Amino acid sequence: MAALDSLAQLNSLLEEWTQNQNSSSFNVINSLHRMAELLERETEEYYKMDPDPFDDRHPGRAVPTCALGHLMKTLFKNEDFMSKLISTYLISSNRDQTDLHIAASRLLLDVMPGLETTTVFQETDGLVRRLLHWAEVCEDPLRSYATGLLAGAMELNDVADKFKDSNSHLVPMMLTRLHKLKCDYEKENEENTAVEDNQRHFGIFAKESERSPEKKISSGSSKESGAENSQESSSPIKGSTKGDNSGKNDRRESMKRALSPSYYSDDLYRFKKKSRIRDDSITEFSNSSWAEMKCYVIGTYSLQPLSTAMKQRVILQYLRPMAEYQELIGAAFEHNALDLVFFYMDLRKNSDIRLAFEALRYTANLLCHKKFAIEFLTMQGVQRTLQVPRPSVAACGVSLCIYYLSYFEDAMERVCQLPDETLAELVSYTLWLLECSHDSSRCHAAMFFGQAFPYRVILNLFDQKDGLRRLFNVISTLQIMDVDERRDVSDDQLFTMRQLTRHVSLALKKYFEAHLSHKVEEIKRSHARSDDNSSPVHEVPAYKALKLTPEIVQENVEILMELMPVRIHWAPEITCHKLGGIKLLCQLIALAPNWNSFTGKSEMIKNVLDVINVLVSTPRSQLALLESVPLYDNLSTPAVSVLIGLAEGEVIQDPEVQKSALNVIINCVCGPVDKLGGGLGRYIGAGSKKKINLKVGEDILSKMWNGVRINNGIMVLLKLLSIKTPITDADCIRALACKALVGLSRSETVRQIISKLPLFNNGQLQLLMKEPVLHDKQQEHIKFCKYANELLERVVGKKSSAHLDASLEEIRRADIVAQTRITFQEKELLQLIYSHLQSEGLTEAAAALQKEASLPLSITPPNVLPVQPCVFASPHLASPRFTRQISHPLASHITPDVPSTSSGLHSNSSSQRDSPTNSGSTPGTPGPIRFHLGRQHPQASPGLGQVRASNSKSRFSSEKDCILSSPAWRTKGLLKGQGEYDMTLDKIVTEYLRKQHALCRNPVTTCPPMSLFQPHRCPEPRGRRMAPINCTSRIYNRMLGPKVGGIGGPSVDRKFIYSRFRPCQSYRNADDGGMLCCSFSRDEQYLMYGTFWGDIKLVSLQSGEETASYNFHQVAIEDFQQARDSDLLLISYEDNGSGVWTYGDVVDNKYSFEDSHIEFSKQVQDRIIGTKDETANIYDVSTGQRILKLYDPNKANNYLKNRATFNPTDELVLNDGVLWDVRSGKSIHKFDKFNSNISGVFHPMGLEIIINSEVWDIRNYHLLHTVPALNQCQIRFNNLGDVIYAIYVMDEEMDDFKVRSPYSSTFRTFDSTDYSSIATIDVKSKSILDLCTDKSDCYLAVVENLNTDLGTEEFVCKLYEVGKLRDEEDNQPEDDDEDLEEVDEDDDDDDDSHLIDFNDSNDEDFLTDDDDEDEDDEDNDGNEDENDMFSQSEGYSEDGDDDISDDALFELL
């Protein structure tokens, strides 16, 4: 009611002013004073609400229910009044109208807490200058009002800088004025003391013994006992001595203590040692003592009459912003500002708590200067500050002083050397501020501890007073951490709470890092004592700060993990677990990414991750990360999943957060297997075979490996290996991710999985090792290469070479080649020497050789040197795998029975081939072949590989050595001296033949003597009983031999049939409703397709006419499925709904579900499985009731296009990448996630699961192999289940033509028995939406999205005949079928199917054709049993019609 009365009175005054403002008889001064009185009265009431004194927001925003805020809003809404108040009453009025100036200044000063000072002081010309004049020369109260207004103006930096000279003159004057006012104030207090003693309640008690609001300042020379300290909590103001109260009874003592402000200065968390009195509740005496306590707790506010205390308060408010300037600090020293603030802090002499608060704020700004901070400590400023009573407004000012004091290391060292009692009181006071004070003080206290924890003396006192619990309580008691009940919190409150978590997280980080450093020093000293040769460990003094850089902290973590015994107790970590600290911190970083408007979010998350990084150096904390963390809406997630999400960078895109999260993962998975004290590894000690029985005998590391794996850690780490943004941190993130993978690869399960991934099988990791993302980050790239080599070693199973640039398959082949004994026909070598002598004109030497070697006389010498240089592969077309080079056409004149050969190796220039030094090569001793994939210099031989290995330190320099004339010049030891060569012709030829042997697709260890004239080729693994590749030969063999034409006949037949598709019919929607999906009817007489308008239309396959149309919904039909033996139809809508319908004469909706996709069970269609997000629901077909729900939040993979499905026997369900048992309703296994979209399907044979490009074995959950061509593809099986149709699934953001995959307009066929590629058919449309096959697998229907000439889209359903070529292809010669890349691209749209094949799944690669080599060409010896995805080679003719141009011999000779 009082608030409403004040608001009504203000409105009445404003209305009166509006009506009479222009009247000469209207008393404006009286109205202004009455308004000011209302505001001052409500300000008093606002103070009673105990707002945060550092909260500078509008009172109506800080406390929405306060009347003061409503009064200010009412004033500010009246713009005419406010404009006239400033521009007329303050500035434009005559200088002799002092009363008007006083009234206007008073009112403006009252509304300053809610005033927009920028508008008033920067946009109003002359106002600041007038205020400066009034503050300097006028009398009170105008002078004080002007000073208070100047305090608000000088808070603006632009205004303070503009009037710098005036301030330098006014500041000394204000300090001098303060000293005079201080003397007057002391006299007033002395005069009023006696009167107050007679009038206040319970004054009789004060006559005998009076308590002061401050403790006696202890001197450094005297040490007082605990009993004395207990008596010293209050000292007399006048004439009282310690011990006077010893004879009083307990009740009187208790009452006096409760009435004294110093009651709250005692340590609230411990009892006194001797004759201690328990702290009683203030509520017992609060009603009686409020008159005394009011001035100490909240203070008062009144501008008329203007008291001496108020005059000093406005001066201190002006001096506070001025104290930040270095040039004005001299005035503070000159005028003894410290004496002033110490007087105001002393509540024995100063009864105004608000005055003490302003003095403390002024002191805090002065402490920003190091010189003043040292002087403050010298004059026992800390001791004096700690005497400020709590709770009180002034205690908030103490928090700011303590925080600012901690910023200087020199000052903190002096603080740490204060007496023990003072330090204990300092920590206790700060802990009280942290727990019981306002939000701003809690922030200041947390920031102080963040700066003070590196000092051991502060850290120890903090632990003694149970500080960690209070620090965690600051976070745990916040409303934003209450996930069970969401409360409506204002944005300002949210910001305050989030800011508090930010400061507390930094304090926790410093706390645990400091304890970690001390623990590591302790361990080092322990090892130093046991090791006589080690140097002593020097301990940092307790008053000195520790150096806690990120590098030192990480090193300490590694030392602690390696050397700390398992069963040793680390007190901070144990206390953290008792308090639930790990769970609380993980919950904090799980909730924080949604704080979108909070700018300190990344810093806070990083600090928390750094805390967890220190804690996970112990096994207990690592296991805590496997527990679930509660979230909003009754959700939960494992803590390790939160860490993996932060490391991925999708939740919050900040590289520092990513690196911190990766460090936590590394510490969890890369810990030592064997540790001191028995270890957390597999066995105790070296000789014992007894496993440690820890947590049901399970190994800690195995738990962490499995925890990271089942939460999709492998996918995230693999993704981070190829990260390129942000460019400045990409190399560091790559190195950390690779290090984490090295730790994970120690798990046999993880090693088996990643060994099947393209990262190793396709040489992708080696490509990443070639150069850094940013060349300035060479050191980070070196670390990445180091970890990558370690990872390859673990996956391969043996130590890698210095230049391991090959895939696993190439390493296997290289090992076989290295073990092969190379032999050749020596007579052929002599023939080559003979021909060389003839070509050089040395006929006599040639004749002598012919005679002595008994060479045939009639033979035509083979011309091994081509007339022109051989054709080599272009650098930009060079494949990262070895390819055979076909001989140059100009070399065809060579005698057919002695064909020329060439090495087929890449050379650098023609000058190299002509140089005589190229005849030198490395010795042909058996050894590993060095692979240099993707480079243009020749393949290294074993000797050269050793040299390059020795030069591995300079591998990142520019490769200028590669353009030297010959590798022989770069090989040490090959040129011993002029004319002396450590090389023989036998070694040259042997190495040349070994290189040819290395090019074989399937090399063998035992080879017959090789020929120098015929290209070497190891026999392919094809026996006589294998089915011929040629279709005609297979059909012929069926008459004489097996029904399928031989071993592998069905596979070759599939490659022949499912590589040919002839378009025979196109269907368009006449209603322009488009189409999304299609299916054949049960009788296969009609083609059915779903439209955007919710219709399903039937089109006759014979006539192509639309025969029926059924409307099922008003939105697009995304998918539908017919029952095999009834009229039931399952329809999935685009708006995430679905239903079961019957159609025929009448369309009826039987059931409706919320699931986004539904389908029948496979074996018996008596159940329906639906998918809604990550949940699968199984329904009964007859009743429509849900009979089972399959969902586990702890195992959810969150695939974007999740579709649950039954296995062929209906006993298992695959949902969201998790395998479920239908009978028990329990999850069986969670498959590792390597993509974000495709959730996977069962193979029709029932033993394999295909999830995107990964093929998993259901029996042992091993990753069998990967098929990169299936990446991001939706697959459908034919009715026999032996062929896979795959169409590319585009994301919404890929709808743009520029970013669309080249495979979006193609469908692919695969052999489902070995997942080998059959063909890729380009329909030349924008995209393919759906496809289906009939029961006989003779027809294929494809829904295509075409771009018309008008720029619009058109949806067409095309029908293809399977196994037939187009008419123009049938007329082509059989030999021309091999090169389908030359098919005319100008064919009609209905006949524009283009057959192409692919060797790589990368969208950037051009679609090439290599499927037809398995079709009609008898001479092409392809291997249908291999998946051509993982190797790229060009076949050559078996009968030698296509000669192999091999230039190695030419280069060497």
Distance between the termini: 111 Å
Q: How many individual helices? A: 53
What share of residues is helical?
40-55%
Rg for CA atoms: 44 Å
* Strand order in space, largest sheet: 26-27-28-29-33
Which percent band covers the strand fraction?
Answer: 5-15%
Q: Total strand count, please?
A: 33
Which regions are unreliable across 5 or more consecutive residues at pLDDT < 50?
201-288, 678-697, 861-979, 1293-1299, 1373-1453
Shape verdict: globular
What is the averaged pLDDT score? 76
Q: Return the structural class.
A: alpha+beta
Largest beta-sheet characterization: 5 strands, antiparallel
Describe the structure.
With 1453 residues, the chain is of the alpha+beta class. The chain is built from 53 helices and 33 strands. The strands form 9 sheets. Strands 26-27-28-29-33 form a 5-stranded antiparallel β-sheet, with helices on one face. A 4-stranded antiparallel β-sheet has the order 5-32-31-30, with no helix packed on it. A hairpin with a 5-residue loop joins strand 31 and strand 32.
